[in-house]
Amino acid sequence: MSRDNSFSAVMARKAEIIRNAVGVDYHQFESGSIAFDYERMMASTGYTLEDVAEIQRGFAIGNTPLIELKNITSLVRKLSKEGYGARIFVKDEAANPSGSFKVRRAATSIHHAKRMGYRGALSATSGNYGAAVASCCAKSGLKCIVVQECYDSRGVGQPEIIEKARKCESLGAEVVQLSVGPELFYTVLRMLEDTGYFNASLYTAFGIAGIETLGYEVAQQCRTQLGKDPDVVVCTNAGGGNLTGTARGLMKANCTAQIVAASVNLKGLHMASDTQFNKKSFTTGHTGFGMPFSTLPDRSDVPRSAARPLRYMDRYVTVNQGEVFYTTELLARLEGIERGPAGNTSLAAAISLAQELPEDAVVVVQETEYTGAGKHGSAQLSFARQNGIKVLLGNPREEIAGESIILPAHPSLLRAVDVDLDHMRRSLITHAAETVDHAPTEGDIAFLAEETKSSTSFVLETLNSRKS
Amino acid sequence: MAKKGDWVRIHSIILTPEQRSAAVPDDTKRVPLEQWTKGYLHADATLSGEATVTTRTGRVVSGTIVDEMPHYTHSFGDFVPELQQAGDEAFALLFGGDAK
Question: Does residue B57 sit at the A interface (CB-CB below 8 Å)?
Answer without folding.
Answer: yes
